[in-house]
Amino acid sequence: MSNPNVCGSTSGNDNTCGSGKRGRGQRGRTKAHDIINMPDGERIQIEVNEWGQPCEGESTAKLTTWIGTLARNHLYCPLTYPKWTNIPQSYKEDCWKAITAKFIIPEVSKTWCLDRLAKRLKDHKCDLKAEYYSKYDSPSDRRKNIDLQLIPLEQWDALLKLWDDKKHKELSDRNKKNKSKQKMRHRMGRTSYAVIREKLRNEDPEKKLPNRIKMFDFTHKRPGCSMDDESAEKLEKMQRELSLQPEEMQQDNDVIDETFTKVMGRDRRGYVRMFGPGVTPKQVFGLEGLRAQRQGQHISELRLENSQLKEQISQQGVEMNEMKSQIAMLMLFMTSFQSSQG
C-alpha cells in the first residue's frame, strides 16, 4: 500500500480525522494528531509483559489510540468485508507496518495489536450503524445522510447490503438479547487487564503476579462504588470455596485457579479470563496446566471431600477421647464405691 492519509478522510483534510456528527457536549473521536505529527524516525517505546501484552499505562493508551485511528481508516481497514477474518492478510500487514512505524514494539505483540484492531473495527461499524443506519428508515435516507469524509459511498453501500440481510438481522437481534442478559461487568474503562496486572504486581512486596480472584475483585469495582450484585455474589462464592481448603493450600496458585474455574466455569477456547486478548491457556498454564484446568472442578471437589473427611475423623477422635474420659471417671467412681462398701 502507498502511504495513505492515516486520518482516512476522503477529502484529504487532516481536520476530519475520526470526525463525525455528535451532539453538543459529547466527546468526539480521538484524532491522534500528536502521533501523526511525530518527527520522521521518532517512535514510542512500548513495554510488554511476558505474554507480549503492552503493560505500561501511558504508552499503551497512545498505542490503543493509534490502533483505533487505523481501524477507522477505510484505506487500512476497508468496510466491504463482513468480518475481520475476511479481510485479506495484506491489509493486516499494512496495519502492522503502520503501528511499527510509530512504536517500538516486539513481533510477539503483533497478535495483540491485530486483535485490538479487529475489536476497534467492530466498534467503528457499530458507531456507523447507530449514527447513519438505525436513525433512518429508508435506504435513500441512509445513503443521503452518510458522512462521505468517513467512508466512501461504495463501502457504505456494502455495509447497507450486509445490515439489510435477513440472516444478519437475526444474528444481530440474538446478540443484542444475549448482551442484555449480561449483568456482570468490569469497571476498568479503557484500562487493559495487562496494565492492571502490572500495576498490582509492582505494588506487591514480592512482585508476584496477582491471581485471578484478586484480578476479578480489583477489576469489578471502582473506588467508592459498590460491586454489581452478580459480581459480588461470584466473588463471595470464590472466597467461600477457597476458605474450605486447608489453610496451607489457600495461597497455592493451582488451588486458586481451580476455585476460580469452579465458580466462573471453564474458559472458552483460546481465551483466559482476567488476562485479556493475546493470551492463550497454553501460554498461561502450559500443556499440563491446561489439562489440570480441565479437571480442576473434579480435583477441587475431591480435595474438599478429603478435607471434610479429615475433619470428620478428627471430630470422631475428639468424641472418642471424651467417651474414654467418661468411662475412666465411671470406673474410678465404681472402684471408690466398692471400696466404701467393703
In short:
The chain is mainly α. Helix content is 57%, strand content 1%.
Quantity of strands, as a count: 2
Outline type: elongated
Distance between the termini: 116 Å
Strands side by side in the biggest sheet: 1-2
What portion of residues belong to β-strands?
under 5%
- Structural class category: mainly alpha
Major sheet characteristics: 2 strands, parallel
Count of DSSP H/I helices = 13
**Poorly predicted ranges:** 9-27
* Radius of gyration, taken over Cα atoms and rounded to an integer in Å: 30 Å
Mean pLDDT: 83
The domain count comes to 2
Which percent range fits the helix content?
Answer: 55-70%
- H and E string: HEHHEHHHHHHHHHH
Characteristics:
342 residues; elongated; 2 strands; mainly alpha; two-stranded parallel sheet; 2 domains; 13 helices
